[in-house]
Amino acid sequence: MQRALTLHQTTIGKKVLMAVSGAIIVGFTIGHFLGNLNLYLGPEALNGYAEFLHSLPALVWGTRLVLLFAFGVHVASAYSLWTRNRQARGSRYKQRKDLATDYAARTMYWTGPILLLYLVYHLLHFTILPAHPGDVYRNVVEGFQDPLIAGVYIVGNLALGFHLFHGIFSAFQSLGANHPRYNRYRRDLAIAISALITIGNVSFPVSVLTGVVTL
Ligand code: HEM
After folding, report:
1. Cβ–Cβ < 8 Å for 215, 138
2. Residue 21 forms part of a structural domain
3. Helix or strand run (H / E) with residue 188
4. pTM above 0.70, yes or no
5. How confident is the model over 44-74, as pLDDT tens digits?
6. Ligand 1 pocket check for 38: Cβ under 6 Å
């Protein structure tokens, strides 16, 4: 009996799941970055923004559930593509071929786990075990005044930049938007989104470390 292959069983299906779940995470990341810009407006703005969000539990829990699901699908599909790739390859290449896709895929497989570790640390630091519950501004500024913590955020967000660039670029391909005439725009869009989020996110710890943002 022939078994119908469902979306998550085929390589292209897994890539589509990666692209769609990745798009949800990118949407959140852009919204989260825009909200965090309140740091530059001072404690009332950032804490007021956080209070406003927490006054909408349906929004907070809805977002958490969707994100948890998207992260689960993203990581599970990545793991499955990785193991399938390794099995298909059989033995390791004697000589590395630096094809563009090969390079992009390899970048994803080291930035991905770094991001996962970063996210666990980030959630413990600000959401699960905050030093000053309810005072988001103080948590962020006090946190980033420690060069080690600021360093973790800078490295984590640089990894995010590489991951976003290659992720956005290859997501278009997985979703079928791959034509030589438009590939330049695909690249430009990937660079614009990843640069905006990376420079913006790295600016937060750097502004605190350099004393531009203080308590
Ligand atoms: C320097 C960059 C970042 C800063 C300053 C920052 C800041 C914060 C703060 C202060 C909170 C707690 C908010 C509250 O309790 O109201 C938070 C939560 C969170 N952040 Fe970030 N964040 C950054 C980057 C990221 C990145 C790159 C991601 C990954 C996509 C991320 C994902 C999350 C998630 C999932 C939560 C938990 C939301 C919740 O369930 O309450 N953050 N962030």
Report:
1. yes
2. yes
3. helix 183-209
4. yes
5. 999 999 999 999 999 999 999 999 999 999 9
6. no
